[in-house]
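S2.1 Query sequence (SDR family oxidoreductase)
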Amino acid sequence: MQNIALIVGASGIIGSNLAQELLAHDWPTYGLARSPRTDVPGLHPVAADLLDSAGLAAALDGLAPTHVFITSWMRQDTEAENIRVNSLMVRNLLDALAPKQSVRHVALVTGLKHYLGPFEAYVSGGVAPPTPLREEQPRLALDNFYYAQEDEVYAAAARDGFTWSIHRPHTIIGKAVGNLMNLGTTLAVYASICQATGRPFRWPGSAAQWHGLSDVTDARIIAKQLHWAATTEAARNEAFNIVNGDVFRWSWLWPRLAAWFGVEAVGFDGTIHPLEAELSQDAAVWRDLAGRHQLQEPELSRLASPWHTDLDLGRPIEVMTDMAKSRKLGFREYQSTEDSFFDLFAQLRHDRLIP
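Output structure tokens follow.
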């Protein structure tokens, strides 16, 4: 049977890379977003708001996907609102598709907040699960919109008879403009501003993150795992961590990132220096840089997400994950983290998003 993909969030870091992965394997692929991308050759755009059930049903009329990939979420002011809105998005989507009886598999992308708790919990240091994080670790006794999203998938799968997979990345590294969780591009923008202004490339985060072991997820490797899980019998109805496969310390990587831009690296000095404050006065600096170098995006806020980078780099605990589960089932892709950053920086420069 032909595989037909519907990617929710196809304009984002994960969704756009997944679209390219599936199209390379000749899957007819539809990309759903409120403002869908039209610049990916072969991707069929679907404009819809997941919170508008009537409009969603109309947008999906005539489309009968076999595989659904949910890669987006909407940030709200409280975790209670995160739960309400993001679970409703999943429920509306799967309810709209249910009458078609075409869906064979649904993949949901969440993340390591499954183990760490919502933003407020791990920033405060109130939750410190043992590392490396493993899929069998139980849910925390905390409100968490990831759990609510999972429960919507489980309920629809029991009702409609499809299989599912859950994917838990750690800090996505990849290109996207307008994305709320974009550490790689945020650091590229910060380093570019440091280069232009003569400021040092100062570590913004915590001692635990500077000295501890860490890992990240290249957008290309999660795309490969999503494809693998959707087509592998042994991966059905399972949750998987997904990271590059190597580990590093920021104390090792930070000077290498600085060297790529030719700026001075400054490590942890005993104090956290949040990027949100560091970049708060740089909107005009970036507009000037964009004008002088004819960059494609003059708005700093469209490229950098310092609030989320601060959450990642400011954690008071070491965070790394275990990949044994999917490795045992046959997923053996690997990606060098250093190359993840350097490939991204080169792509951003080629696309004239950084000078």
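The chain has a mean pLDDT of 95. The radius of gyration is 20 Å.
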